[in-house]
User: Fold these one by one.
Assistant:
Number 1:
Amino acid sequence: MFNKILIANRGEIACRIIKTAKKLGIVTVAIYSDADRDALHVRQADEAVHVGPAASPQSYLSIANVLDAVKATGADAVHPGYGFLSENANFADALQAKGVAFIGPPPVAIEAMGDKITSKKIAASAGVSTVPGHMGLIENPEEAVRIASQIGFPVMIKASAGGGGKGMRIAWNEDETREGFRSSRNEARNAFGDERIFIEKFITEPRHIEIQVLGDQHGNLIYLGERECSIQRRNQKIIEEAPSPFLDEATRRAMGEQAVALAKAVGYYSAGTVEFIVDCDCNFYFLEMNTRLQVEHPVTELITGLDLVEEMIRVAAGEKLRIGQEDVRLNGWAIESRLYAEDPYRNFLPSIGRLTRYRPPAEEQRADGSLIRNDTGVVEGSEISMYYDPMIAKLCAWAPDRPTAIRAMSEALDDFEVEGIGHNLPFLSAVMNHPRFQEGRLSTAFIAEEFPDGFSGAVPGDADARKLVAVAAYTNWKIQHRNILISGTVDNDRRRVPQNWIVTLNDQAFSLTVRDEENSIAVIFDDGMRLIVASDWLPGRSHAVFAISGESLSIKTARSGTGHRLRWRGMDVVAHVRSPRIAELARLMPKRQPPDTSKLLLCPMPGVVTTIAVSEGDPVEVGQILATIEAMKMENVLRAERRATIKRIAAKAGASLAVDEPILEFE
């Protein structure tokens, strides 16, 4: 076994590896950039080494800098996590040349599977079902159009060295092919230093299902079931689960056996993942093999009872697998939700800043048998940087069955408090409570189909609206009583708190009466409906559990002007509790109008301007590219929404802009 492991990564995956290494009694070394000096993984490791500036190419992606850190600390093994150098064969070769173990597969397997074109050829030779496409390199946009037309639209344009949704575009026509080729190549060059592009048929109504494989250096290879990864946005996974609600045992076995056959064809060992696209008839096609630990590995660990990081370490140390295929048992159901620093109310644009509040749910076994796990790399006060991937944490729920796992995840998302940045917690909650998700009717088009106009918060139905109104009435009741006590009146004067209120929620008004009950209140609506509300909430608390007529609701609360902001199950509403007279006057108040920004192109996210595609005085047409912004390793194209003339260019290529800073002005 190893004495000291250097972790060539950052954030939550570095913390995850440290946890297992400590369990095994292995000393850990963290590396960090300028931006990560105070990061959680640096604090948790036994040692830490600075490897360069904030920009990844000069720190985490610098093989020379990482090798210097290995030498300086005397580490005898390196775990690369995922991303960065995890699938870099040159890095693995360099470590082996220095007598340092690479906790991952052999370099030859990384090289073969890291090139998507080569991997598809190997897969076909190994008898693995593959997607129709053009496996040769494509030189320019016009060649891409010709090939796409031959394959038949729609097509998927992919970076050969890609991963994590980078360098991928779907094209439905020739124009989208030209633009997709350019964008994919640019993203691939920036993310991987490799701009090679290929094209394959895009399978409609597809599911993204992947098989976890595990092998040792003695020729033993097994598969550990599958993960359903169909809930994606911009080809980036958001929610994963294991097993898949779609596969039958025969398909699972066939996919697993093909995954193992492919791994054997390249002499694979360590943990790895073979990804497939599966159509509605259970036909499956090889996509790619990820020669590393996957982001979503916790759901496999939860249903198999294995620690995949531990298995990778043991395999790298030369040990044989401790289980065979016949020993693999899939127990229960696990779901993972990825918490991202991106604002769902602004088309999921990246968000940066300080976590002024970060309170994840308790990691524990719950009364219904479910289990909550949270893999994270931040703490309250951590800074979310523009330099790295926007993922903050991976919240996981395990339960004996899928409905219980969904319920446990939904409750855990309600309990998760994050403030200071934009984040996707409300969107994750909305998906978890969506009828189609709960029924398991998934595809990679789920988000595009169910949220075609973007996400503006889940809309409460009448029953949920009344629960939120009752919570607002309760918080108002608590505040009124506190005000009376502060004013120095005696207890009997509590009766002076009015009983009749008007609560407005999403422009809907509810007339109700509030009456004191023993340790609770009764909220009586004008139609006679009665809800009993009890809670330990006190003014100033940002989160509490409210018992409403026997049902427990975990709700985030905050003051919003004169109203009460309530967040629950993906709903984000402001309720105003007013006396009947004040409510009457409020209806007469004019609504504040937002400023007119129609003549400005504003930066939609914190990022770097990579190109300005127009000049002052240029006329532009609808859909014309105006500028591109790079943020958190993704390229974002900004287009004209109407015909106009450019009056002024306010930003230059290379400039770092904050949200809503002007890029250009129209006449």
Number 2:
Amino acid sequence: MAGLRAPPLPGRHLARALVVGGGRILTEEWRSAALNRWLTARPRPTGFSLQPRDFRPADAEAGRAILAGAFVHDGVTLVVGVRGDPWDRPSPTKAFAEALHRFDWLPDLIAAGPEGAAEALRLVLDWRRVFGTWNAFSWAPEVMARRVFNLACAGPLLAARASEAETAKIAGDLARQARDLLGPGSVATAAERAACAAVAGVSLRGPAGKRLLDRALGKLGRALDLTVGAEGGHASRRPDLALELLFDLQTLDEAMVQRGLAAPDAVQRAIDRLAATVRFFTLADGALAAFHGGAARSASYVAAARAQDETGDRPAANDLGGYQRLEARTLEIVADAAPPPRGAWSEHACDQPLAMQVLVGGRRLIDAGAGRGIASACTVEVGELPDARVLRGFPARVLGARLAAPAAAVNAQRHEAPGAVWLDLAHHGWMAKHGLVHQRRLYLDTQAGELRGEDRLTPTARAQGPDGRHFVPYALRFPLHPGVQALVSQDRRSVLLRPISGHEGWILRNDALDIALEPLAGGRGLQLVLRGQRRADSGARVRWKLAPARQQIDGPKAQA
């Protein structure tokens, strides 16, 4: 059981923001100073010694689109024309600008062949001309870390087409940026920054590369102790960040082997633990479970990391990093059975206790949630809390949009018997406001292939009092994966669900007072909502069951 935390002190986030903001101003003043630029530029590297291998799959089609004059990121396009300049015009979005300055396009462009490598060299040199001195946005540590990694992995290929003077400039820029990465920064990105700097160090020739590598490895070992749990899992509790860090460490390990060096024990341990984490979160469709703002990634992307896992297809654990897995023939469930991350790790985290993700027949049916708040999560909401409790205003601008409220205690017990496995979960997040404990039981009948659930709101002494007879609304939500079709029965006791591209329907039966299909926030699909009312001094219970429909669905009878 996670311990209860003391209530936050008034103004503590503001006080922290003032301290951090003041320190950040001083740090940026120093980073932009001529003396710091002179110090980080020395010693100068003598070129590249080897080409680290990025195990992430590259997209040659995206590279050919750049050759045709169009940069594409996350569905957004910036048209610059053939041999155009993306650095002299505004980007469509901030996320697009970050991807551009991270050099996310570099692996794809190089994958397009010799013509792509030549264009990549031109774009890198043009970036250097405009932003190579220092810039608060493009030299932000989180942006620069990815640029350093991508440039280190592409450096020898670029050098093969560059003049000696251009190669010296590219290698010198890489060393300077990598050294800058090892300065002060957020604990949440420390492991990534140190790993990227180490990859740069191992790629550079001469004493400059060796000194950079040694310094980066020292910082990396300490950062990994804070980032990767002893049993596995990333401190952010995001499966996709565990995957990305695994990719970076795999690249570093392989590059050090090329140099005849052995990666430190801390790196090897982290690789083993992160590989187990990725294995745990890889679901039947080959993609990752998605929690706390993380992305599922594509099956091919996940497979590229798992191909380096020496343990192969060894069965995943049943619990890892505060998550629980339940599996039957056609059902797969991952439940969040721990509090959300706090502090710097919670900038993208979700306040969605006991949320779960469900796959049927290898297809995604129910997602853990949309957005960051409990009002769009696969769990129970009491009363009305339309938004996640995150930092706002000045503290958010300095510290990021962290979760502001203290984490509630969470209990989790796992039970197994022949033909069944079940979880007894509980969280105390409604204690302060409503005097309630949310208890959730998930019972998987592995023989029948059915998932039975029971959600209880149990009152405590705090629920008693003069206002104990007023009614409080509650809602149990099931956010449907995009493309899932749903049809509510006439008696409003069941819902027919069909996953995208699936022919087999599933029935979710329940005993709630009211049931409805409602749009998710942002219009990203539908959510099934079971509603009820409870007296403040009494409990409530909703029972539900997810089971295969008796007949297959022959046509699109439902609305998506």
Number 3:
Amino acid sequence: MKIHYLRKGKAFPLQIVLVVPFLIQIFGAVSLVGYLSFKNGQRAVNDLAEQLIDRTTEVVDEHLKSYLSIPQTLNQINADAIHRGILNVRDRQTLGKYFWDQMQAYNLTYIGIGLTTGEGLGAARYDGKTITIDDWTAKLANNTVTYATDNQGNRTQVNTRWTWNNFSESWYTQPIAAGKPIWGKIVTVNLPAGPYISASASRPIYDSQNRLLGMIAADIHLLKLSDFLRSLNISKSGRVFLLERDGTLIASSGTEKPFLLVNQEIRRLQAIDSSDPIIQNIARHFQTSGFGSINKDTDFQLQVQGKQYFVDVLPWRDKYGLNWLMVVSVPENAFIGQINANTRTTIALCLGALGIASILGVFTSRWIVSPILRLNRASEAMASGNLAQTVETSSIQELNTLSNSFNYMAGQLHESFTALEKSKEELEDRVEERTTELKNTLGELQRTQSQVIQSEKMSSLGQLVAGVAHEINNPVNFIHGNLAHVQEYTQDLLAFVQLYQQYNPNPAAEIQTFAEDIDLEFLQEDLPKMLSSMKVGTERIRQIVLSLRNFSRIDEAEFKSVDIHEGIDSTLMILQHRLKAKPEQPEIEVIKDYGTVPFVECYAGQLNQVFMNILVNAIDALEENNTKYTYQEINDHPSRIKIRTSVINSTWVEIAIADNGVGISQEFQQRIFDPFFTTKPVGKGTGMGMSISYQIITEKHRGKLECFSTAGKGTEFIIQIPLCLKVHQMV
């Protein structure tokens, strides 16, 4: 007898099934190890670069604070000595030696004073070694004499004569005008000793009667800052440089000087014109936004000549007016070389392990598959009708057990097959009989099922029709009631995220990646807006239903004494999303002119609905009016809503709500309180709001609701209701 098999899908050899998953696991492990090694290397590079940049920034910052504080401190000491009369500015010999001694003690380029009389005196060290004394009078034309000095500070000989005028120099006029210690503008001079670029710290000086004597200044040679930056030696291709806010170079760790010598004239060098490609590319990076826009520590990465650089730009200021930029750049390849080598070694070892594991997997699979193939051949023979089959035992314990079980099964199967042939005919008769019974039962079951389904449909439809009318408000009220809690929970979660970001500004890379994937910043901004919109939406649905119920007078709200100002304020809070500034228009200004109004007996909820309807119409009118003007024109003539409350004749309260929107024509004013009348486009209004409001004021509160409007100038609604409705009804 031939047995037919139903084959489903494609079958795979056991060797492949055993080897391939094993190899996939090894390959996955190798790939994961290589990837993690690479990512850890990248993270290590970023951490090392950040640490080096931070350390360099701290060193440069400390040096600048120390180096640049000396001139200002020395000026203060000298100014105090002059103010107390200890130092006489008229004793030019003593003053010259005094400045000479200070030049010996401090690493400065120049110390000097300029008097209001036009006279002055200073000590200079332009070549970095020799100290000279400049002495000038008020009479111009060769009024300045430069003296050489000996090792005691005495004047020995005249080196040169030249002309100098205090009153035409910025280093004199700027501190006098400021009236306080300042840093003067950086100056460049081409001296015989070489190009000279300096920053001057200066301050006014006064005598003991606080009369202005002139000013005192101390200069530093800015090339010494470049020497210090070069001494940092952060890397061969790394750069540290200082910039003014206009992009002019002050000092750098490169070999390039911060100025150019053109026809014996010194010109300051812009960073964007630097011959150093690193400095030039960093300057170009900020060319669009400008250096003046950098107000905080800024980190970024930049590609320069095929190399990746880590760049940190930090504003540097002092209390005397300096406002520079400190820039530190470090090349990625300063750290990545050894890390890449380690990564390659790791990958090579992993690939070697993969090869060895593959070979072992092939041999192991063959050892396991051989006895299974014998079992397979015996099974195929049995399937072909040859039940007299036995298989050899295996050296693998589990497969040996399987072989014994197969041999036993073959014997039992032979016996069972013989018995099965005898009962075949009897079984077929019984199956045919049972099949007939099942067909009859199935037909009856299908008829019964159809009847049940039809009954359930009719029952469900009746329940649905009965429930919709009664429960239409329940989902809306449920959503609206829970939105406040959702909004509170959301605010707490967002506050928690912000607090976490505040104390952990540099989270793990995985957190940063996930934050970028979900656009955390946009989510933090948009989620409260979404909840607010949902709240406004549910409020709008509830207002429409409430408006219809109020209009038909099927619902009577609670009558009580309330502060109407609270109702107005809560309504304004609900409409805050409509009042606040938007990209296309500025904020709508709300002016509250609240009078002293006692508690009013009224239907508070319905009165709030009146406020809501009038304020929504006012906002719609203002938005319609704003579409005709530009943002600047709206800003010059802002949209306003004015709310005024007062007491009339001690028994009535008046609420006036006015806007400066498009206004309402005389024709529409006569119909504004008619049911279903609206000037808004389809879908923007139901036409019930003002009609309901009029009904609430006039019928529920025995009051008045009037509209006064001029087209193109604005609209004012005036509500008048009695303070005590019960007393008014009795009268």
Number 4:
Amino acid sequence: MADEMVRRAQSFVNLIYGSRIGMTVEEDGRTGWSTMYALTRALQLELGITSLSNSFGPTTLSTLTAKYPVLNSGNMPSENFCKIIQSALYCKGYDGGSLDGSYNPGVQAGMTKLKTDMGVVGLSAGSDLTPKVFKALLNMDAYVSVNSGSEATRSVQQWLNGRYLNRQDFFVIPCDGHNSRDVAKAMLLAIQYELGMADGVANGVFGPGTQSGIRSHPVSTGSQGTWASLFSAAMILNDQPIAFSSTFDSTTAGLVRNFQSFVGLPATGNGDFSTWASLLISYGDQSRKGAACDCVTRITPARAAALKAEGITYVGRYLTNPVVVVKPEDLPEKAIQEGELQTIANAGLRCFPIYQTYGRDASNFTYIAGRTAGQAAVNAAMDHGFQQGTRIYFAVDFDAMDSDITSNVLPHFKGIQDAIADDGNRYRIGVYGPRNVCTRVARAGHSTASFVSDMSYGFSGNYGYPLPADWAYDQIVTRTVGTADGAINIDNNIASGRDTGQGSFDPGRPARADVRLDPSVVPAMQTDVGKYMESLGYPIDGGTRSYQHWKCFQSTVIDHDDLITELSVKYKLRKALVQTSAYWEMRHIEPVDEAAWLATISLFNTVGKFKDTSTGIAKQRGLTLTGAWNYCLAQGLITGRGIADRTNDEHLYNAWKSSYDSETSALTSVFLIHMWDIAGKPDGDDKSPAMRPPRLDYVDSEIYDVLRRYQGPGAEAFEEAKKRMGLYYIMEKYNAISRNR
């Protein structure tokens, strides 16, 4: 809701400072960072700082402290200086008077209320404005409970502010009732201050000195004073139902036992080092030995024995490696290796599968990518022999902001969920990622358990967030176990028992050549392809395009299955690649395309000139057809008519007309174009390098490249290929079922 006083503040900063601070703000009456940045720059200008910045950083703070260590009604530098303060109060939701440039009683009352809400009113006279409070005034933190904030958490925040604000590196933290990165760091600073660390030494990092100090300050029933207060504060910030108190009593001990049981610690009821560590840092006590691990190295019998000796039962292994392995740093054993699961089972270990692509930022997480990942993971899990009911952990391995989770991660997991549901819920969905990612994905109903990347303690989604309620595995440290040929580098994980992986496996599905589609799978395949395309906005009835789903599926999958199978075996290229390219293109044919084809035919028949356009069910151009033909002929992959002259209208037209007239010719040409694309499209319009020769075990990145290159080198092709990938994995699912029956 717009606020008139905020609008006046925006008008003031624009009128007085806009031309001098390098920015203006929208006068909409809504508080936002842009307004706070403008007020910060205005303050810097008033302080004589020449290099203006959006940040209220060390220079601004030190300059303000040197010139005005205390601001009040008796020493206000100027009316405009005071109006900056008044404007900031308005934007924070406090009384700033009438924007008259006077530090009047209304402003003083507003300042006193602000400092009371911060918990710092006792550090200086009620209405005096000190530099650190000024800094806090010019940010977007709240000092009242917001969004159902916890009053217990707010009391901790106020206590921390009031006790430690005068320390050098402690700044006002929000008092909004929610834990956060800043609040978690403030807790660590408080611990360090109470350990006696000097200013400049205390840094809010859970380092060796802090850990050693905590070991010397256990708390238990009967403990009183500041350390008991800090412990109860840490419990509250981890969402534990405890009162903020300076006394550690029997009730506290019971609640501590509950927390210890939850995080996988011995339930002693005492605030020992391991419990302190679990409360203060995401990875907790890294000396703990967990019953689980994950690794990117093959489990051999010797390594399995080393893991067993270490007390490990559950092993996380990757379903796929999405990139081509050409050098050691590509992790040649990242994906589960042939025979490895049986080795795991023989050793009495159990395996939980992980699916991870190369997504390292929010842009790689979308609904379409999720649907693709879901079906790809199902296919891979079946290939390896994971039984029905296995939980697959889908990875979010980047520092996802809360906004990233909303805009990208949640739609991605909805896509995974839809793909798994369309497959009949053969497998369950887990999520691997920071605490906030795991919690929010679970709350949205998209996952059933969490594998928490707590080792990445600096991730925004770990710092200040409690351990997810549904955690199954908690990743805390990397270490090497075993010796000689049994040595293996692992991420050690605490196991909650919520997921026990799999201890026996179905026979794996080897990379066999494709066969004809089993008639029994065709109806389900047609249904799943149609549902996937509907999720992309392509209606079953075709909508404004020329062909309905059933017709495209009939022409590109069913009617010519013998031909596609024969050519797949001949060229060692998966049928699903050709089915995907052909079906996708046919679904995109529009009346305008068909009109262009007729115009091309008329032009050639009238004046002998050829005007190239994409034609036939697989939408192929004359230049592409002749380029692929020439390449495959030169490689001995085909025989027949000679090399086409790609500057000759008749040669181009004849190739084009063949694909226009014949579905058989068009589908054969899909294979030839793919073969040309894989070779780097010599003499073509795509400068992409040659790929590995065609093979039946192409990895994700190679499948993507083949599908993308078919469409061309333009930017649109790179985006469209992401959608084709999802279609490919559905096509491949049913081809795999057929060839493994």
